[in-house]
Amino acid sequence: MAKEFDVATTLQYETQQTIDSWYARVNEEPELSAVPMSREDRCGHLPEVFRDLVNRLRSQLPLGKSALASEAEKKHGRLRRVQGYTPAMMVAESRMLQVSIFETLQQHVEETVPRVLLLSVMVIADEVDSQLAQAMSSYILEAKSDAKAIAA
Questions:
Q1: Crossing angle between the packed helical segments 15-28 and 46-59, to the nearest 10 degrees
Q2: How does pLDDT run across 52-84, given as a tens digit for each residue?
Q3: Each residue of 28-44: b (16+ CB within 10 Å) or e?
Q4: Cα separation of 45 and 113, whole Å?
Q5: Which end of the chain is more exposed for a tag (fewer CB within 10 A), N or C?
Q6: What is the number of structural domains in the chain?
């Protein structure tokens, strides 16, 4: 019989390792690493993100239901705008966080949940977010083009 797999507890205990993995990914991404900032500025919001995520997992709120608004995420969005991020960069950062979280879970799932299923979820989430980032980039380029045409 498989042991109980508690995703919330795993993420709680592996928060720092997952943040470290995410930070390494961000630093390898030329567009994101081109925005100079300290590790604290880049990662400072993540402990609260993980607390919110663990709380959401434990609340058993049904899918599709909105959780409470996160003040940390509101602040994070405003800060990234001031720091020079584009919406597409924020999506890329979020995508990397998802992948880092899923990899952490995959490392701890062992025999409890089929690895193929978890890998499939990772691929789906990664692909959806990747496509979203591309769509947002196109949207921004189009908006800039429209703004130039109006100004001319």
A1: 130
A2: 878 877 776 666 565 666 777 777 777 888 888
A3: eeeebeeeebeeeebbe
A4: 30
A5: N
A6: 1
Answer yes or no: is 61 within a domain.
Answer: yes
Concatenating the DSSP letter of every residue in the chain gives -PPP--HHHHHHHTHHHHHHHHHHHHHH-HHHHTS---HHHHHTTHHHHHHHHHHHHHHTPPTTS-----HHHHHHHHHHHHHT--HHHHHHHHHHHHHHHHHHHHHHHTTTS-HHHHHHHHHHHHHHHHHHHHHHHHHHHHHHHHHHHHH-
| 46: containing domain | 7-151
Nearest to 15 by CA among 40, 59, 47, 44: 47
Please state the pTM of the whole predicted model: 0.73
Provide the token pair at 16: 């720092």
Residue 89 tokens read as: 């960069």
- Provide the pLDDT confidence category of residue 1 given band limits of 50, 70 and 90: very low
Cα 60 from Cα 67, distance rounded (Å):
10
Asked if residues 124 and 95 have their Cβ atoms less than 8 Å apart, the reply is no
